Amino acid sequence: MSVTIKDVAKLANVSPSTVSRVLADNPRISDETKQRVYKAMKEMDYHPNAIARSLVSKTTKTIGLILPNTDEDLFVNPFFIQIMRGISHYAQKKGYYIMYTYSNNEDQEVEHITSLINSRRVDGVILAVARKDDKCIAYLKEADYPFVVIGKPENADGVLWVDNDNFHAMYSVVNYLIQKGERKIAFIGGSPTLNVTINRLEGYTRAMENIGEKLDENMVQVAEFTENSGYDAMKRILCKGRPTAVVTTDDLIAFGASKAISEVPGQHISIIGFNNTPIAAFRNPTLSSVDINSEKLGYYAVKLLINKLENEKQDINNYIIDTKLVERDSTKKFIGGEN
Question: What is the C-alpha to C-alpha distance for residues 333 and 328, in angstroms, rounded to an integer?
Answer without folding.
Answer: 10
